[in-house]
Write a structure and sequence with these properties.
This protein is mainly alpha-helical. About 65% of the residues lie in helices and about 0% in strands.
Length: about 120
């Protein structure tokens, strides 16, 4: 057990931080699992809205230091790859690509600005 006044204070502070970190970590786990499982049995398991919420929570937890930055990054990558895999399996809606829609409308992209010469 801590003997000095400052050591006792650090124990109290670390217990407060532990409680706060546990609740943040639990919330992140809940959001990630909610993003992975389907809301309805016939619905697709990953929705972009749920994934967006989970990624935001992971970023905030990493920013606060609750999760290591690489851990949050790895979890986000796994969520995004699962979402991409799901959207690749699902047939895309019949929609014209932006290039063909712009060409059909007669819209032209502005020319690139010339690069400045070094002096």
């Amino acid at each position: 057990m801590a003997n000095t006044q400052s050591a006792k204070k650090r124990v109290r502070a670390s217990l407060r931080k532990r409680d706060r970190n546990r609740s943040t970590r639990s919330a992140v786990k809940t959001l990630v699992s909610r993003a992975r499982r389907p809301a309805l049995p016939e619905a697709a398991s990953l929705t972009s809205e749920e994934v967006r919420r989970a990624i935001s929570a992971l970023d905030k937890a990493a920013e606060k230091g609750v999760l290591h930055a690489n851990n949050a990054s790895r979890r986000k990558a796994r969520l995004m790859s699962a979402l991409a895999k799901l959207s690749a399996d699902r047939p895309a809606p019949a929609k014209a690509s932006t290039k063909t829609a712009a060409a059909a409308a007669g819209v032209r992209k502005p020319a690139a600005k010339p690069a400045k010469a070094k002096a």
